[in-house]
Amino acid sequence: MAPSTNQKKVKLQNYLDDLISNSKTSKNSYLAALNVKHALPELKTDLLNPDRTPDNQTPEDQNSHLPEYLQTIHHGPFLWIGQEGHHEYMHVDPDEGMLMILHGKKKVCLFGYDDFQGMAPHSKGSSGRTIQSSFDLGCETDLEKVKARTGLIGELNSGDILYIPAFFWHQVTTITKTVSLNCFWGQTGSNFNQECYSARVLDDNHEIRKAVDYWWTNIIEQNRPFSNFERILSRLPEVVWRFFLKQWKEELTEKQVDSLVKVAMDYLKIENLPERDENDNSKVPPELKIRGLRERHGNAIPSYSIHKNSEKNRLNKKTGETKNVE
Ligand SMILES: O=C(O)CCC(=O)C(=O)O
Predict the structure, then answer these.
(1) Which of 15, 87, 156, 168 is most buried, with most CB under 10 Å away?
(2) Separation between Cα atoms, residue 173 and residue 175, nearest integer Å
(3) Is residue 250 in contact with ligand 1, taking CB distance under 6 Å?
(4) Does the C-beta of 166 come closer than 6 Å to ligand 1?
(5) What residue ranges of the chain have pLDDT lower than 70?
């Protein structure tokens, strides 16, 4: 059962007042994944991507305060401010993660990506950028179901930073009122003797690749009901290349693109891709989109978006067969 959320715009001051006074509203609300670059532009120079060579450094890069180990920033940093007792349901992110506690305390449960299906990932086509598990570790029966797995459970306090490896399942509970930041990133391939992120998750490791393919086919399924899907298929290699450039800020190799195209075709049970329409002369291929992604940072100034968990909204229903026009 993947959770869904409602969004509401409120003034940050009101949100904080509610939080401090422990109002009922604050218990159902969470200021989640607020993109700092959009919402707090005054911090821009502190948040520049440190992934720069001496040749392409700008004067602002000299001011970058992001740690060196956050190599290629995929998305973020994001700000989270939550009331005691809030929890983010168990999910995986398609990027390396770094969770930093500025103030407060959070409990994190972490499980690897091995036997990905065994963690009851949501059905294909569910919305969003993450894959959510239907297990809730706050529930005794679900805890029982993960008993055979090795999990790491720990508390993070003010000043702690946790590396959440890509495609690791994690459930995060806010123990006391907490302000935290997180960031999604990938390896550049030129630092710390590491291979680049795409090679790490696509090339060598079969277990992580199963998780990636689950995520990737979920994106395919999200786009399938839309009227431009045939066109997407007719230009799939280009579409894949651009999609991953946007997601992971990396140019995939031809072999990587081919393998993702094959996974998509196998998933869709098609042997050939449709022919490109002779009138489709556009240089830019159609875009494969992450559907239902909450536009948390859109117009985030001066209001701030909050998502609200409600028990009755926890069932994430697929939209059915209707064709949506793109
Ligand atoms: O802090 C939270 O509530 C969730 C954070 C999270 O899921 C992450 O850092 O990937």
Answers:
(1) 15
(2) 6
(3) no
(4) no
(5) 1-5, 44-65, 293-326
Ligand 1 close to Cβ of residue 101 (< 6 A):
no
- Cα 256 vs. chain centroid, distance in angstroms? 21
Cβ 164 under 6 angstroms from ligand 1: yes
Same domain as 232, residue 309: no
Domain annotation covers residue 282: no
Same domain for 134 and 250, yes or no, is: no
C-alpha 125 – ligand 1 centre gap (Å):
22
Residue range of the domain that includes 208:
197-268
Q: Please report, for the domain that includes residue 98, its CATH number.
A: 2.60.120.650
Query: To 5 degrees, how large is the angle CA 258–CA 267–CA 112?
Result: 85
- Shared domain for 134 and 91, answered yes or no, is yes
Q: Does residue 26 form part of some domain?
A: yes
Whether residue 276 is contained in a domain is answered as no
Q: What is the pLDDT of residues 80-90, one digit of tens each?
A: 999 998 888 89
The reply to whether 165 and 209 lie within a common domain is: no
